[in-house]
Amino acid sequence: MLAKYELVEVKGGATTSLPTLINAITKGISLLFEIGRSVGSTMRRIFTNNFC
Fold first, then answer.
1. Which of 16, 45, 47, 49 is the most buried (most CB within 10 A)?
2. Is-above-0.85 flag for pTM?
């Protein structure tokens, strides 16, 4: 069992999940950019009648 002075030194909780949250947000933003790029490319191909 940990003593009170040892419990003060324990680090964890919200501070350790912050990098995970930041990583999830950046991946979500990256995904939105990829979706936008795909939709834009598809629209350009439709309007220019350039199909493979």
1. 45
2. no
